[in-house]
Specification:
- It is built from ten helices and seven strands.
- The chain is α/β, with parallel strands linked by helices.
- Strand 1, helix 1 and strand 2 form a beta-alpha-beta unit.
Amino acid sequence: MQISVIIASFNEEESLPELKDWIVRVMDKNNFTYEIIFIDDGSKDNSWSLIKEFSRENLNIKGIKFRRNYGKSAALNRGFNAAQGDVVITMDADLQDSPDEIPELYRMIVEDGYDLVSGWKKKRHDPISKTIPTKLYNAATRRMTGTKLHDMNCGLKSYKKEVIKSVEVYGEMHRYIPAMAKWAGFTNIGEKVVEHRKRPYGYSKFGIERFINGFLDLLSVTFISKFGKKPMHLFGTLGTLLFLLGFGIAAWLVFDKFYFHQFHMTDRPLFYMALLSMMMGTTLFVSGFLGELISRNSSIRNEYHIQETLGLENE
């Protein structure tokens, strides 16, 4: 199978019939072998009934329904597990992503050799309250992850099958799949300018809180990717530096007390700064030690992404 299209949907019943027809039309026109996987993320409207009807009419259409709303990351992760196509394409269900982009996204993976291609909605049809925070978010993400994409959060992306089988998406980490793919060794990441269409039905399910959550998730994914298997490298280093700083200040205060007979040590603010620094340093060091113990006993402590092997059947 050439293409798997994964669509996470939450209360988008007005858009689904038009979106389905559009995707099928593009697939048939280009003679692709394909599957369309709709993930109903706990919709309260008639979405699941429509998806069941689609599946009866077209065996290439499949569906998964969650009992409640778990979020886009959970929906994509379940879709990634089910996908069988050599190229996996994700898109939103609100008709703001154009299925006409699918052939070029597929070609860039198959012919140009990209591991992942992310859409870039260069011209957006969003209010300024969304466009400015989005630009700031993308700038911060590029800076912290080193992934040079203009629109990290664009839902329209294409992946090699190996990429989506190598990353686990949870929480709200779907925004950072390109960064996680890069840290997993898939460094050939491309970008394509795509059409951003106005939403014809309904309203956006994302509020201003997604920018706050997005920043917190950025810190999480950066930490986990860099220090998830070696927490002592971060906490131990910071703890040691803070402890040595506090110990150095305390040593100077002792020297100053006995050789220059100046103020009582407890009368000086530096004394409390030294105590606080040593306490924080010890706490961080112990946190790193505990994190290292947890990491050493993790079932994925030696999990690596292997590209290929020679003469090793077990691998």
